[in-house]
Every structure is written in C-alpha cells, then in structure tokens.
Amino acid sequence: MTASSLDTPYRGGFIGADHHYALTVYFEDTDAAGIVYYANYLKFMERARSDMIRACGIDLAGELRATGRTYAVADVAIKYRKPAFLGDDLLVVSTVEQLRGVSVVIQQRVMRGGQVLTDAMVTAAFLSADQRPHRQPSEWVDRFRAIAKAGPDAS
C-alpha cells in the first residue's frame, strides 16, 4: 500500500443495481453494552446514500453550492432485526426502488455477512433553494433509472 492510497477516503461501488458501502462499528457508534445505538444505523445509511449518489456521477455538493438545491429525507420506514456490535464489519446495500418527479425511494439494508440487521425504505425528496419540492434534474433521473435497471454503466 502506498501513502497516497492511505490518504484517499473509502468509496463504495456498484455490483449490478446494488450499491455496496462497507464500514466498521467503532466505539462511538455503540452504547455502554457495545451494541450499535439505533440512530446510528440512520447515519450509516446516510453515508451509503451519499456515496451512491456520488458513485453514479451526481455532484450533490456542487449542486448545493451552485443552486441551493439538494435532497432531504422525507420519509423512513425502518425495521431493526438484529443488533450490530463493537468491532463488527458491516455492509450497507442500497438499491433504487422507485423514481418519482421530485423524489427517489431507496431500499437500504445494513448487513453483517449474510444477515440483514436493519432494513429501511428511504424517500429522499429533491428541494429547491427555498426548501420546496422541485423536479430532479433530468440527467439525474436518467442516472437513477440506469442504476435501477442494472447499475450505473447500463445503457
């Protein structure tokens, strides 16, 4: 490993239509018993969604700076199935399930090995600079459609 590779942040990636984002549970993620605090699953999923959007070629930070438009979570339906623990290596698998004019619905599963620990359906609404629902850029809609079909390289 080179010093430059160690200085590069981790990036997830696509396997078909699924975006994979790996992480390790650290002490700060857990309660006094070493069990992941429930709200931290939402943080894990947020990181994975942000990485998925970046991986499909959308510069959300640039859009926010240039126009004030961004995504905001409008709804989350979450099911906690099994706990994760200090030191566990986890995988967040994100899949575009539904695309609407002003929102995208993403299924996210936090997994340890083959076990699903947490399963969620997250609706992210695209908002204008004045925080009102706004149609997503057509290029972004096309990218999400490609992901939903077979991954970001699908035609």
TrEMBL record:
Residues 34-116 form the Thioesterase domain. Pfam families: 4HBT. Keywords: Hydrolase. The keyword Hydrolase applies. It is an enzyme of class 3 (hydrolase). The keyword Hydrolase applies. Its EC number is 3.1.2.-. GO terms for molecular function: fatty acyl-CoA hydrolase activity. Belongs to the 4-hydroxybenzoyl-CoA thioesterase family. This is YbgC/FadM family acyl-CoA thioesterase. It comes from Sphingomonas sabuli.
